[in-house]
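Progress report, Aim 2. The chain analyzed during this reporting quarter is listed below.
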Amino acid sequence: MRITKAVAALLAVCLVLAFVAGCEDDDDYNHNPPEGKGSLIIDNTTYDDIYVWIDGIQVLRAPYRSERVYDIDPGEHRVVLDQRDGDRYHAEDVDILQSKVTVWKVSLGPRDYIVTKWID
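Predicted structure tokens for the chain:
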């Protein structure tokens, strides 16, 4: 069976379109904070389980390769990320804005976590 160049090109275009259509936008979090609250999303892109502490209180952990949403009061909060069974760590104050979503995308650095932040 011989495939012509036109058929091969058409197959290539179909494969590219199928791939693009199946891709998700990783930066589209689609979360609305509850009334009077703001939200912090920890997007754990690592293969680590991360313990999360907000203002000294341990909250639900951010499992590996997942997103975790924390709805909290507006204002400044101390957030600590601590690797389960490891040495990686990140601590920082974050200003949570009412009705806004603050995103922390967590990746691995040489020794600690690298956190990319933005307000969505």
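The helical segments are 5-22. The chain has one helix and eight strands. These observations will guide the mutagenesis work planned for the next reporting period.
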